[in-house]
Design goal:
Structural class: mainly alpha
CATH superfamily: HUPs
Number of strands: 0
CATH topology: Rossmann fold
CATH architecture: 3-Layer(aba) Sandwich
Largest sheet: none
Order of helices and strands: HH
Distance between the termini: 27 Å
Shape: extended
Radius of gyration: 16 Å
Strand content: under 5%
Number of domains: 1
């Protein structure tokens, strides 16, 4: 969870993530973790800036050969 997603917007000061969206997100992550657990896997969940959290995970694991990510598409006005 990137804390920057839970701040207020620059223009109007509105929350970027409201309580209903946050609840949906938390329930979805919980469901995904439970589904993976039933299949013998797991889900790593961390809070922090992704660029820091991913680096820390790579350092902890030590045997990472690839990292795959996606970038959110920003709307161009």
């Amino acid at each position: 969870f990137d804390p920057r997603h839970y701040l207020r917007t620059h223009c109007y000061g509105w929350p970027k993530t409201g309580p209903h969206r946050l609840r949906f997100l938390l329930e979805s992550v919980k469901d995904l973790r439970e589904t993976l657990k039933r299949k013998g896997s797991t889900l790593v969940v961390r809070k922090g800036k992704p660029e820091d959290v991913v680096w820390d995970l790579i350092t902890q694991l030590g045997s990472v050969t690839a990292v795959v990510f996606h970038e959110e598409v920003k709307e161009i006005l």
